[in-house]
Design a protein that fits this description.
Length: about 160
């Protein structure tokens, strides 16, 4: 039983969640409305060596500010033929809205690192990074390289 709770805590931590033990196992949201949190980015088989995290915090006006840092990121044209950039996407979890193009990940090709800062009105969202041919595309390609489920404290927006 202890092994099951340890595994659940490990899985919850990987999703940016905090496991709570009591008479049963509950899962709550990490972070608080005014504090920040760090969520690891999960890589895909397209770029298995890529690592990163997204740091989030709720701003005074209720939006979620996020900063992405990525390392070991292969050039986009090595991920998928014809691609030349990485695009950051946000899809709110509380609605059926499509993913929103937040902009291009700024990549240092010599260091294989990337950075991006943005703001979204959502507190709970799926964040993903894809290799794209055009940074202004309106829907993500299948060339996903990193992703995370972000749950910043408070009710979903």
């Amino acid at each position: 039983m202890d092994r099951m709770f340890a595994r659940a805590r490990h899985l919850a931590a990987g999703l940016g969640l905090v496991a709570l033990a009591g008479t049963g196992l509950g899962i709550g949201l990490a972070g608080c409305a005014s504090g920040g949190q760090q969520t690891p980015l999960a890589s895909t088989p397209r770029v298995p060596a890529a690592t990163g995290q997204v740091d989030t915090k709720v701003t005074d006006n209720g939006n979620t500010q996020f900063n992405i840092k990525v390392e070991h990121l292969a050039p986009p044209d090595r991920v998928a033929n014809g691609t030349n950039s990485y695009v950051v996407w946000v899809r709110p979890l509380a609605s059926d809205q499509p993913p929103q193009n937040m902009g291009a990940l700024q990549v240092d090709p010599d260091r294989l690192t990337g950075r991006f800062s943005g703001t979204t009105p959502y507190r709970q969202f799926q964040l993903s990074i894809t290799a794209e041919q055009d940074t202004t595309t309106t829907s993500p390609s299948q060339n996903q390289v990193l992703s995370a489920m972000v749950s910043q404290g408070g009710p979903p927006k």
